[in-house]
Amino acid sequence: MPHKENKEITLKGIGGSPGICIGKAYLVDKQGVDVVPKYTIFNGDLETEKKRFKVAVKKALDELHKIIIDTPEELRENAQILETHAVLLKDKMLYGRTIETIDRERINAEWALRKVVLAIKPLFESMGDSYLRDRAEDVVNVSDRIMKHLTGAQVININNIDKRVILIAKELSPAETSQINLDRVMGFVTDRGGRSSHTSIIARTLEIPAVLGLEKITSIIHNDDIIIVDGTAGVVVINPSDETLAETESRKNAYEARRALYARSGHLPATTKDGLIMAVMGNIELPEEVVAVRDRGGDGIGLYRTEFQYMARKSFPGEEELFEHYREVVELMPDKPVTIRTLDINGDKAVAYASEPEENPVLGLRAIRYCLQKPKVFMTQLRAILRAAHFGQVRLLLPMISRIEEIIEAKRLLAEATDSLKKDGIAHQKKIPVGVMIEVPSAAIMADTLAKEIDFFSIGTNDLIQYTMAIDRNNRHVAYLYSPINPAVLRLLKHITDSAARYDIPVFMCGEMAGEVIYVPILLGMGLKELSVNPQSIPIIKDAIRLLNLDQAKKFVEKLLKQNTAEKIEHLVQSTYGELLNNGNFKTWER
To answer: Residue 347 is part of which domain span?
Structure first.
């Protein structure tokens, strides 16, 4: 039945994957997962109840392994996501605690599992980093799979859909998303999830539009409602008017034309009108994302976040495992640089086996501070990176540097790692470029001193802006203060680039500011040599660079730095470059 009201409804969510589709809604019914019984288990039946839980986990594991085997070729590179879910099924945090809860509280397996999940979820959801907040969804996906086998609920089989539809669900797990048939499914919309969720990553791999985090969309949309999904803007329109349909169809056609253009031009160099070639690279979290960077013409990997290998497991990964991951990335980008950022956990990137309670973890023992206090963990990663560097062009990036002593100690440990590999007779690269993330105001202020100790700077604008303005950008009450073009932020950026130029070291940027087309003239004019963005934005940023003139951009920056408010700067940016860069041909999809 179509929606009873024929009134157009527009809902704003999170753009999980760019693109636009128009079609009929198809609701995916979870069938009973939310209905969890609770009852007491008597002593004599406790072992039977625990065995029932173990059998449900075994069935879920077998089911997941079958899905992994049957995963279509275009998603084969994302099989690691499903492997992660398989590991979570037997993880002590979920599996062990549930059995302990059944035993200790004498309650049924369904209720024990529900209780454990409700305790685990907030640990992830309270993290400041969006990628790690979205790991809470992995726990929910895995527990839902077990719950279906405990309650006898029917398992979703997206393969059975036999018409062209847009999927609507409370949530689609990576396992469910991996079953999507592109001939049948145009896009999807969910109540839960975020840009960094694994489901979102798969949607981007499939290049189908997705809008996530709409909270109650499943209670608003009915089967066969005509809907518009705009994954670029993060908008869903229910029962669109004829005018809205016509306007959306026009934008859809323009988007498809742009995507075809980018596919053809992405591999061309990003050369300004006066001859400067700027490198545009990709940010990745998973090795399988390298393909997206390569296919879109990325000039290398500007930021490889290594935290994923430490998640969803019981202990720290070993050197061999890390080495294999790093080598895979390096070998997929032959003759191009791969920038590996060392471990940035704790704080807002905590993992259960490595965490210690802190009152304010975001300002606590995290990133380089954590690694220097855990030299064995750090040494394992450094050895793995040096070994991978033997197979290509690897650059080492140290996160969250706040003082020069951290650089000196990190370099000492790197030299120690090199010596140990030499003694062990293991192939490795003896010397690799070492850079630091400039994301703490103290590092920005001391940039002229730090530049003497390292080979390059990489500016992480996400944290730098937050720390400079003393705000949490996820706090809606102060989010308005988060602006890359605040005068204080721009002056810090200029000081960083001037300091680097004085000591002849390159400055890169891997924060979100680098992926915003309208800011490219500012970064070009400040002297940045390389931008690293989400893979989808690579060809867009490259095309924007080709429209610009370096000398003009430098003069433009001089004008900007004389302004004293973000509003004045915004006006100057838009009046100078708005028509050129924001004419609809260069709209960046924000990750």
So the answer is: 306-432
